[in-house]
Amino acid sequence: MTTPVTSTTNAANTVAAAGNSAMQQLSGNFQTFLTLLTTQLRNQDPLSPMDSNQFTQQLVQYSQVEQQINTNDNLKTLINQGAAQTGAYGVSYLGKAVTIANGNAPLANGQAIWAYNLDAKAAQTQLTVTDAKGNVVYSTTGETASGSHVLKWNGVNNGGTQLADGTYKLTVTAKAADGSTVNSKVTTTGVVSEVDMTSGAPVLMVGPMSVNLADVAGVLDISNINTNANTNTSTTNTGTVN
Question: What is the pTM of this model?
Fold first, then answer.
Protein backbone atom coordinates (compact mmCIF):
# COMPACT_ATOMS: atom_id res chain seq x y z
CA MET A 1 0.00 0.00 0.00
CA THR A 2 1.09 3.60 -0.40
CA THR A 3 3.15 5.52 2.13
CA PRO A 4 0.23 7.62 3.52
CA VAL A 5 -1.66 4.43 4.39
CA THR A 6 1.39 2.89 6.06
CA SER A 7 2.02 6.06 8.07
CA THR A 8 -1.59 6.15 9.22
CA THR A 9 -1.41 2.49 10.23
CA ASN A 10 1.74 3.05 12.31
CA ALA A 11 0.22 6.10 13.99
CA ALA A 12 -2.97 4.19 14.82
CA ASN A 13 -0.96 1.31 16.28
CA THR A 14 1.11 3.73 18.37
CA VAL A 15 -2.01 5.44 19.77
CA ALA A 16 -3.63 2.09 20.54
CA ALA A 17 -0.50 0.85 22.33
CA ALA A 18 -0.28 4.04 24.38
CA GLY A 19 -3.96 3.73 25.32
CA ASN A 20 -3.56 0.12 26.43
CA SER A 21 -0.50 1.02 28.51
CA ALA A 22 -2.32 3.89 30.24
CA MET A 23 -5.32 1.65 30.95
CA GLN A 24 -3.11 -1.06 32.44
CA GLN A 25 -1.40 1.51 34.65
CA LEU A 26 -4.73 2.93 35.85
CA SER A 27 -6.08 -0.56 36.58
CA GLY A 28 -2.90 -1.38 38.47
CA ASN A 29 -3.29 1.75 40.59
CA PHE A 30 -6.92 0.81 41.26
CA GLN A 31 -5.96 -2.67 42.47
CA THR A 32 -3.12 -1.29 44.60
CA PHE A 33 -5.42 1.29 46.19
CA LEU A 34 -8.03 -1.38 46.92
CA THR A 35 -5.42 -3.67 48.49
CA LEU A 36 -4.07 -0.88 50.72
CA LEU A 37 -7.57 0.11 51.82
CA THR A 38 -8.67 -3.42 52.73
CA THR A 39 -5.35 -4.12 54.48
CA GLN A 40 -5.73 -0.93 56.49
CA LEU A 41 -9.26 -1.88 57.55
CA ARG A 42 -8.21 -5.41 58.45
CA ASN A 43 -5.33 -4.28 60.65
CA GLN A 44 -6.73 -1.20 62.33
CA ASP A 45 -6.71 -1.01 66.11
CA PRO A 46 -10.23 -1.88 67.42
CA LEU A 47 -9.64 0.50 70.34
CA SER A 48 -8.63 3.30 67.99
CA PRO A 49 -10.49 2.79 64.73
CA MET A 50 -9.81 4.80 61.61
CA ASP A 51 -11.07 8.37 61.68
CA SER A 52 -14.41 8.53 59.84
CA ASN A 53 -13.40 11.60 57.82
CA GLN A 54 -10.21 9.94 56.65
CA PHE A 55 -12.08 6.77 55.78
CA THR A 56 -14.67 8.77 53.82
CA GLN A 57 -11.94 10.53 51.85
CA GLN A 58 -10.37 7.21 50.94
CA LEU A 59 -13.73 5.84 49.78
CA VAL A 60 -14.20 8.95 47.62
CA GLN A 61 -10.77 8.37 46.06
CA TYR A 62 -11.66 4.73 45.49
CA SER A 63 -14.89 5.79 43.76
CA GLN A 64 -13.07 8.34 41.57
CA VAL A 65 -10.58 5.77 40.32
CA GLU A 66 -13.40 3.32 39.58
CA GLN A 67 -15.34 6.01 37.68
CA GLN A 68 -12.27 6.90 35.64
CA ILE A 69 -11.83 3.27 34.59
CA ASN A 70 -15.50 3.09 33.58
CA THR A 71 -15.17 6.37 31.65
CA ASN A 72 -12.19 5.00 29.73
CA ASP A 73 -14.15 1.86 28.84
CA ASN A 74 -17.07 3.96 27.60
CA LEU A 75 -14.77 6.20 25.55
CA LYS A 76 -13.18 3.13 23.98
CA THR A 77 -16.65 1.88 23.02
CA LEU A 78 -17.53 5.26 21.46
CA ILE A 79 -14.26 5.29 19.50
CA ASN A 80 -14.92 1.80 18.16
CA GLN A 81 -18.45 2.80 17.18
CA GLY A 82 -17.11 5.92 15.44
CA ALA A 83 -14.56 3.85 13.53
CA ALA A 84 -17.29 1.45 12.40
CA GLN A 85 -19.47 4.34 11.23
CA THR A 86 -16.53 5.89 9.35
CA GLY A 87 -15.88 2.54 7.69
CA ALA A 88 -19.50 2.29 6.61
CA TYR A 89 -19.32 5.85 5.30
CA GLY A 90 -16.22 4.97 3.26
CA VAL A 91 -17.89 1.87 1.80
CA SER A 92 -20.72 4.08 0.53
CA TYR A 93 -18.23 5.51 -2.02
CA LEU A 94 -17.81 2.14 -3.77
CA GLY A 95 -18.75 2.39 -7.43
CA LYS A 96 -19.19 6.18 -7.18
CA ALA A 97 -17.28 8.72 -9.26
CA VAL A 98 -15.41 11.17 -7.04
CA THR A 99 -13.76 14.49 -7.82
CA ILE A 100 -10.31 14.80 -6.26
CA ALA A 101 -8.89 18.26 -5.65
CA ASN A 102 -5.28 17.65 -4.58
CA GLY A 103 -3.83 17.63 -8.11
CA ASN A 104 -3.23 13.87 -8.17
CA ALA A 105 -4.56 11.54 -10.84
CA PRO A 106 -4.07 7.83 -11.52
CA LEU A 107 -2.16 6.72 -14.59
CA ALA A 108 -3.79 3.45 -15.64
CA ASN A 109 -3.39 1.62 -18.94
CA GLY A 110 -1.46 4.55 -20.39
CA GLN A 111 -4.00 7.22 -19.59
CA ALA A 112 -4.29 9.99 -17.01
CA ILE A 113 -6.76 12.87 -17.21
CA TRP A 114 -6.84 16.16 -15.31
CA ALA A 115 -9.14 19.17 -15.49
CA TYR A 116 -7.63 22.57 -14.77
CA ASN A 117 -9.40 25.88 -14.50
CA LEU A 118 -7.85 29.33 -15.06
CA ASP A 119 -9.50 32.21 -13.23
CA ALA A 120 -8.47 34.68 -15.96
CA LYS A 121 -6.83 34.83 -19.37
CA ALA A 122 -3.12 33.97 -19.21
CA ALA A 123 -0.25 35.00 -21.46
CA GLN A 124 1.49 31.68 -20.85
CA THR A 125 0.61 28.46 -19.06
CA GLN A 126 3.02 25.72 -18.06
CA LEU A 127 1.81 22.20 -17.17
CA THR A 128 4.14 20.05 -15.08
CA VAL A 129 3.56 16.40 -14.15
CA THR A 130 5.50 14.87 -11.26
CA ASP A 131 5.67 11.32 -9.93
CA ALA A 132 5.02 10.11 -6.38
CA LYS A 133 8.57 11.11 -5.35
CA GLY A 134 8.17 14.65 -6.68
CA ASN A 135 10.35 14.14 -9.75
CA VAL A 136 9.30 16.04 -12.90
CA VAL A 137 8.44 13.45 -15.56
CA TYR A 138 6.58 15.52 -18.10
CA SER A 139 6.03 19.19 -18.95
CA THR A 140 4.23 21.01 -21.75
CA THR A 141 2.49 24.29 -22.48
CA GLY A 142 -1.17 24.58 -21.58
CA GLU A 143 -4.20 26.55 -22.65
CA THR A 144 -4.27 30.29 -21.91
CA ALA A 145 -7.97 31.14 -22.14
CA SER A 146 -9.87 31.59 -18.91
CA GLY A 147 -12.15 28.77 -17.87
CA SER A 148 -11.94 24.98 -17.80
CA HIS A 149 -9.47 22.87 -19.77
CA VAL A 150 -8.50 19.20 -19.85
CA LEU A 151 -5.09 17.56 -20.04
CA LYS A 152 -4.97 13.99 -21.32
CA TRP A 153 -1.56 12.39 -20.79
CA ASN A 154 -0.51 9.05 -22.20
CA GLY A 155 2.12 8.37 -19.52
CA VAL A 156 5.12 8.96 -21.82
CA ASN A 157 7.78 11.16 -20.22
CA ASN A 158 9.78 13.87 -21.99
CA GLY A 159 12.43 11.28 -22.82
CA GLY A 160 9.95 9.12 -24.70
CA THR A 161 9.71 6.38 -22.05
CA GLN A 162 6.36 4.87 -21.11
CA LEU A 163 5.99 5.20 -17.34
CA ALA A 164 4.43 2.66 -15.02
CA ASP A 165 0.89 2.98 -13.73
CA GLY A 166 0.61 4.88 -10.46
CA THR A 167 -0.16 8.27 -8.95
CA TYR A 168 1.00 11.43 -10.72
CA LYS A 169 0.42 15.08 -9.90
CA LEU A 170 -0.29 17.98 -12.24
CA THR A 171 0.88 21.49 -11.35
CA VAL A 172 -0.34 24.46 -13.39
CA THR A 173 1.73 27.67 -13.52
CA ALA A 174 -0.05 30.47 -15.37
CA LYS A 175 1.12 34.07 -15.84
CA ALA A 176 -0.79 37.10 -17.12
CA ALA A 177 0.67 39.56 -19.63
CA ASP A 178 1.84 41.83 -16.80
CA GLY A 179 3.66 38.93 -15.13
CA SER A 180 1.13 38.45 -12.34
CA THR A 181 0.02 34.97 -11.36
CA VAL A 182 -3.26 33.64 -12.72
CA ASN A 183 -4.95 31.45 -10.14
CA SER A 184 -5.76 27.91 -11.18
CA LYS A 185 -7.40 24.81 -9.77
CA VAL A 186 -6.64 21.21 -10.72
CA THR A 187 -9.05 18.29 -10.28
CA THR A 188 -9.49 14.77 -11.55
CA THR A 189 -12.41 12.38 -11.55
CA GLY A 190 -12.33 8.62 -11.07
CA VAL A 191 -14.49 5.72 -9.95
CA VAL A 192 -13.85 4.18 -6.52
CA SER A 193 -13.14 0.48 -7.01
CA GLU A 194 -12.02 -0.42 -3.47
CA VAL A 195 -12.05 0.90 0.09
CA ASP A 196 -8.91 0.06 2.08
CA MET A 197 -9.59 -0.29 5.83
CA THR A 198 -6.18 -1.62 6.93
CA SER A 199 -5.14 1.75 8.40
CA GLY A 200 -8.23 2.04 10.61
CA ALA A 201 -9.46 4.99 8.52
CA PRO A 202 -11.05 4.31 5.12
CA VAL A 203 -8.83 5.07 2.12
CA LEU A 204 -10.49 5.10 -1.29
CA MET A 205 -8.78 3.37 -4.22
CA VAL A 206 -9.25 4.97 -7.64
CA GLY A 207 -7.37 2.70 -9.99
CA PRO A 208 -3.81 2.45 -8.58
CA MET A 209 -4.22 5.67 -6.58
CA SER A 210 -5.16 5.92 -2.92
CA VAL A 211 -7.35 8.87 -1.90
CA ASN A 212 -8.05 10.13 1.61
CA LEU A 213 -11.64 11.16 2.29
CA ALA A 214 -10.44 14.71 3.04
CA ASP A 215 -9.25 15.04 -0.58
CA VAL A 216 -12.67 14.23 -2.06
CA ALA A 217 -14.23 17.46 -3.36
CA GLY A 218 -17.42 15.93 -4.70
CA VAL A 219 -19.31 12.78 -5.65
CA LEU A 220 -20.77 12.47 -9.13
CA ASP A 221 -23.41 10.40 -10.85
CA ILE A 222 -21.45 8.15 -13.22
CA SER A 223 -24.14 8.43 -15.90
CA ASN A 224 -23.55 12.19 -16.10
CA ILE A 225 -19.77 12.02 -16.52
CA ASN A 226 -18.54 13.23 -19.87
CA THR A 227 -15.22 15.01 -19.84
CA ASN A 228 -15.87 16.79 -23.11
CA ALA A 229 -19.57 17.53 -22.57
CA ASN A 230 -18.95 21.23 -21.88
CA THR A 231 -18.40 23.03 -25.19
CA ASN A 232 -16.35 25.70 -23.35
CA THR A 233 -13.83 23.09 -22.22
CA SER A 234 -10.68 22.75 -24.34
CA THR A 235 -8.59 19.59 -24.33
CA THR A 236 -4.82 19.24 -24.49
CA ASN A 237 -3.82 15.79 -25.75
CA THR A 238 -0.29 14.53 -25.23
CA GLY A 239 0.40 11.45 -27.27
CA THR A 240 -2.15 8.82 -28.13
CA VAL A 241 -4.73 8.09 -25.48
CA ASN A 242 -6.64 4.87 -26.00
Answer: 0.59
